[in-house]
Write a structure and sequence with these properties.
The termini are far apart. The protein is about 55% helix and about 0% strand. The chain has a single domain, classed as DNA polymerase, domain 1 (Orthogonal Bundle). The longest helix is centred in the last third of the chain and has 18 residues. The chain is globular and about 70 Å long. α2 packs across α4. It is mainly α. The relative contact order is 0.16.
Length: about 110
């Protein structure tokens, strides 16, 4: 009896564990990958690419109003998915980036 292929998010978790990523990183990456899939009406990431990643990250910046660091976290999760799990290199991803907060100088 053959074992059915593992679900995509289980494959991601396995790939992260083999590379000794922190458990919190694993949870975070799976969260972003799940949101990406749901954003694109449950299409399999193998059927998508840079254009869909750009749409998702741009959506996070504009509608979601996430911080730049949050957007970077989502991008890192998706790059890991495509490079390490699907072995599908991506062409350059062009994104509307969230604005980085301006730091004001502190006078002493």
């Amino acid at each position: 009896m053959d074992n059915p292929p593992k679900k995509l998010l289980d494959q991601v978790a396995d790939a992260l564990r083999v590379r000794h990523y922190a458990y919190r990183t694993e949870q975070t990456y799976i969260h972003w990958i799940r949101r990406y899939i749901l954003f694109h009406d449950k299409r399999h990431p193998r059927e998508m690419g840079a254009a869909e990643i750009e749409a998702f990250l741009t959506h996070l910046a504009l509608e979601g109003q996430v911080a730049a660091s949050t957007q970077n976290q989502a991008l890192s999760a998706l790059l890991f998915l495509y490079r390490e799990v699907l072995q599908q290199p991506l062409e350059k991803v062009e994104v509307v980036w969230a604005r980085k907060p301006q730091r004001l100088p502190i006078s002493s």
